[in-house]
Design brief:
- Belongs to the ABC transporter superfamily.
- There is one protein chain.
- This protein has twelve helices and ten strands.
- With 285 residues, the protein is an alpha/beta fold.
- The protein has three domains: 159 residues, P-loop containing nucleotide triphosphate hydrolases (Rossmann fold, 3-Layer(aba) Sandwich), CATH 3.40.50.300; 81 residues, no CATH class; 33 residues, no CATH class.
- Helix 11 packs across helix 12.
- It is globular.
- It binds adenosine-5'-triphosphate (ATP).
């Protein structure tokens, strides 16, 4: 059964690429109003999970359900990617920034709202030129863009080409662009990659405020200071399988996670567990 607080439920997900089982029987839940982090060593399968959730890949097996506040439920593995954004209200950013670098910062945020505007036009030229509904929606789109420019601290750069922004500001613009689609779940692939400590701090504040206003977040992140600082829940993948799931504190002290990050062989895990337990014992004594 799915709890009322669950926004995303991934069940028995598997993804095979030829002979490689990149994800193998992986299950987890993300709660509404929380920041859930998906972590794991390089090549563990994190981006593959994201690509399955957001419709870039069709999983080999498994079920991915999205539960909206309204009670509506969507089986994401059955939807094309544009429906995942438009109907299920899942937005994402990418590991490599994908902005329209020749368009201005503001234009990037307006393009993100193109679907809503076209719907308001009735998909006709007359609708675009004369419909009061279209005019109202166009005004709303500009207001939404201005709101997220403020929130992402980009309002002063609104008319600059997106490609001219420093790296950290481009990352914030990607998040602002995703937020302009009004998502219930925001998926961020390594949002802190390449940020300096000041930019990282600004990102943490932005992500926390997005969560506090009711959008749930799922993020892949290598920067443990970000993960441990802002996550409510952490899920750890290794070789396509879940090895730990719990609060940041639980995961941080889980011997299996420590072993995975230290690159220890399976046979040595018991040794590491014993070492961690003796350290824990020592700390408690
Ligand atoms: N399209 C693809 N075709 C073939 N193999 C793939 C494809 N996408 C991912 N893989 C493989 O699946 C495995 C998991 O890759 P994935 O990119 O999901 O890992 P990751 O945890 O996101 O890694 P990183 O932290 O380095 O970004 C890797 O062995 C990768 O080479």
């Amino acid at each position: 059964m799915t709890s009322k607080d669950t926004i995303l439920k991934v069940e028995h997900l598997s993804m095979r690429f030829g002979g490689l089982m990149a994800i193998n029987d992986f299950s987890f839940e993300a709660k509404r109003g929380e920041i859930t982090a998906l972590i794991g060593p390089n090549g563990a399968g994190k981006t593959t999970v994201f690509n399955c959730i957001t419709g870039f890949y069709k999983p080999t097996m498994g079920m991915i359900s999205l539960h909206q506040k309204s009670g509506k439920e969507y089986l994401l593995e059955r939807l094309p990617d544009f429906m995942i954004t438009r109907e299920a209200k899942v937005a994402r950013t990418f590991q490599n920034i994908r902005l329209f670098s020749g368009l201005t910062v503001l234009e990037n945020l307006l393009v993100a709202q193109h679907n809503k505007l076209m719907k308001a036009s009735g998909y006709t030229i007359l609708g675009l030129l004369g419909s009061p509904l279209y005019k109202r929606e166009a005004k709303k789109a500009i207001e939404t863009a201005a709101h997220w420019l403020e929130r992402a601290d980009l309002i002063d750069r609104a008319d600059d080409p997106a490609g001219d922004l420093p790296y950290g500001a481009q990352r914030r613009l990607e998040i602002a662009r995703a937020m302009c689609t009004g998502p219930e779940l925001l998926c961020l692939d390594e949002p802190a990659a390449g940020l300096n400590p000041k930019e990282s701090l600004a990102l943490n504040t932005l992500l926390r405020s997005i969560r506090d206003e009711g959008t749930s977040l799922l993020l892949i992140e290598h920067d443990m200071s970000v993960v441990m600082e802002i996550s409510d829940h952490v899920v750890v993948l290794e070789y396509g399988q879940k090895i730990s799931d719990g609060t940041p504190d639980h995961v941080k002290n889980d011997p299996k996670v420590i072993a995975a990050y230290l690159g220890v062989d399976d046979e040595e895990v018991t040794e590491v567990i014993a070492e961690v337990e003796s350290l824990d014992g020592g700390a408690k004594a």
